[in-house]
Each structure stands twice: as C-alpha cells, then as structure tokens.
Design a protein that fits this description.
single chain, mainly alpha
C-alpha cells in the first residue's frame, strides 16, 4: 500500500510535468491567431485539471481509511462533485466569448494524458531517470 506521503510525491511529480508541458505549450499557442482565447482556455482547463486531480487524490486518501460502506458513498459523492465541476468549467468556456472551448478541454485532459504517457513509458522501461523526473 502506498502511504499518503508516497501519493503526495507522485502528485507533485505529475503536477510538475503538467506545469512543464503548460509552459512549453505557450510558444506553440503564440502561433495561432486567437492566442488570447487559446491561452485563457488552456490555462483554465490546466488549472482545473490540477485541482480536479488533487481533489481525487484527497478523496481516495480519505476513502481508504473509512469503512467499506462509507467509503463507497464518499467516493460516489466525490465523483459526482468532480463531474459537476468539470461540466461547469466546460459550460463557462462555451458561454464566454474570450475562452477557447477546445483549448479548455485540452487543458482538462492534460493530467490524464500525462498519466497515460507516464505509465506507457514506465511499463516499457524506456526512461529510467531523465528529464521528467528531475528534482
């Protein structure tokens, strides 16, 4: 079982990668005509993605210390809250004129993509220690 300190280190590592990708994406966004809209959308989505990831981690850490029935209720309620918040962020992006919706959704998917790529790379042993895991 991973300790809470171990999950915090993993969270920091994933969020650090998200920040690196976010910073690297800014010059790429500058190429597009609607830089401001894309920048606002990607920032909103990326920040929300990190918040959502942290809320998920806190929910899981708390649920493992609860009895099974309470943990199930806690997990489902956290799940519903996180999806409601995701819907609210996407709705804000859809309704506002200055936020690019595609960039917002890309930002929301940022953490998920990082976790997927991280697991693929780790499972194949392609990178033992390198750019991603600097400290």
């Amino acid at each position: 079982m991973i300790s809470v300190k171990g999950t915090w280190e993993l969270q920091k590592s994933i969020m650090r990668k998200a920040v690196i990708i976010y910073i690297a994406a800014i010059p790429v966004m500058a190429v597009f005509c609607d830089f401001y809209g894309i920048f606002c959308g990607f920032t909103l989505g990326g920040m929300f993605s990190m918040l959502n990831f942290r809320l998920l981690a806190l929910s899981v850490e708390r649920a493992v210390t609860m009895p099974e029935r309470k943990a199930a209720v806690h997990a489902v309620s956290g799940y519903c809250i996180r999806y409601f918040l995701t819907g609210a962020v996407i709705l804000i992006a859809l309704k506002s004129d200055y936020i690019n919706t595609v960039a917002t959704i890309t930002g929301i998917l940022l953490i998920k993509i990082i976790i997927l790529v991280n697991n693929i790379v780790d499972s194949r042993g392609l990178i033992k220690k390198g750019f991603w895991d600097y400290r």
